[in-house]
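Two proteins, back to back. First:
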Amino acid sequence: MTAARDHAWCLLVVSLPTQGATARMRIWRALKALGCAALRDGAYLLPAGDERPQALRELAEDCLREGGTAWLMLVQPASADDEAAYRALFDRREELAEMRKAWKDTNRGLAALAPAELLRLQRRLQREYDALKATDYFPSDSSAETEAAWVELSRRIDALVSPDEPHEADGELLRLDPAKYRGRTWATRRRLWVDRVASAWLIRRFIDPEARFKWLARPADCPKSALGFDFDGATFTHVGDRVTFETLLASFGLDEDRALLRLGALVHQLDVGGEPVPEAVGFEAVMAGARERLADDDDALLAEIGTVLDSLYAHFGRDPSRTSKA
């Protein structure tokens, strides 16, 4: 009989003392996160490859530190039938189908949610999808179908949060003289959200203190004499991986200000995702609440959120060495 050697497999056999309930739960959760298949109590199978053997080795060492026993082995299926049986233990098609069905149900209620709720929902669904995808070791047609469904759902959420959201544009950013941009009319889409309100604050605070703003129902309504921002075809918009706020920073030579760069990272995360910024959650909550209260008055919304951005700018710009240790 010829062994089927398409894949090597990791087999972890562990046993923990009965009194180690906390350790048992911690290790069980780690095994579940890796997507291990339980062959029986204490015996777990996982396809070898990438960093998975090392992850299991660390769990084995954790078991030993807790006073238990652990054996980690690389095994091979004895036949093609055994190989198929092993793979069947990691068939995610049913779970993926359930996830797609849940997304379909979720999709029906999206229009009733506020922007902050939509963004929180999107992040939660993304985490759940990423966790399942990470254990989909043998992708199938269902995997590709689920990926396409997620892209469609995520785009719908993006469109609801910020209609007419600009796409990334290619182009070189030139250094501009703020003195030549004073006393101008600036225009962007109404019902301000994070990138637009932060960009408007930046314009009035650092670029054009006399700026007048026009809030557009549609980007096509932008007057030719106005400087548009944060929509496709605007004078200032997303360029490369920069959101509009970051484009303005770079264009007007403000990207050497450490506090503004940290604000830019916050805006970037909330607008298109990216590295987490601790203050982002709080700012998003304040922004969402103000947007609900001042739904028909973008001037008032800019004034209110402007004070929040003033405070964040002061916070980001403080000297850490002078922070009180009391």
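And the second protein:
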Amino acid sequence: MDRGWLLCEPNVSEGRDTGRMDRFAAAVAATAGVELVHRSADPDHHRMVLAYLGPAGAVVEASIALASEVYEALDLRRHRGAHPRIGALDVVPFVRGPGCPETTALDASHAFGQWSASQGVPVFFYERSAASPLRASLPRIRAGQFEGLREKLALPEWRPDLGPPAPHPSAGAVVTGVRAPLVRFNVNLDTRDPGPARRIAATIRASGGGLPHVRALGISLERRRLTQVSVNLTRYAITSLSTVHDRIAAGANAEGVALAGSEFIGPVPASALRGLDPRRLDADLDPDQILEFSSTGTGASE
């Protein structure tokens, strides 16, 4: 199970309590053989993203250590944030690095799912780990969010892949699977009015007839007195970062709103940046965020 390296990029439903977030990151960093390469959080999204890599077995151990801390500390019944979620540990994606066979990554997602189910948390396998096309899409699994999860799990077509047929009272459910690398890219707008961000997101996302392989949300950042077009770019070889940024900039100009900087969340595939100067996007990008990945086919969304 330990050929090549595997990346895990879990989303945790906590973006405000620094002590808790330090505790979660420490659980990962303490796992032998695992390198924590990225950590970010936003209080308006109320979400934390971690990224760590290593041999597959060690990455599974780190994911279990993280989940143990999260399930003990968080209660979704008290959670409200701008980012969609169904779980305290919402999604645990595994991404193949060079030298890691897909079977190894699939085994890792299944091992983590089996452990989560043993803790009484319903499990959905998505993307390349999905048992059916209905389960492949993360937005489809998240529809209704934690608040609608009990009713959703009662439907025969949404019975969990593993675990109980009802949400864990505080942890909800978890989604895990193997997906291709993606680019998470946010562009901030210098306005507190959420209307422009929501309208721009609606015009660029693929589901609305916009740019292929783009998912986008318009989000309020009340603490920063800004709004944001939050983008997942799932096939950056077809729709480039430059294209996405230019469309958002044009939409902002049409709305009479200035841009207020951009940000990358999590590791960024090196191939998505070739020929592009990140400074053109007015975005901070740590060199440690740039990684080379194996080719894994279609993209995914967080």
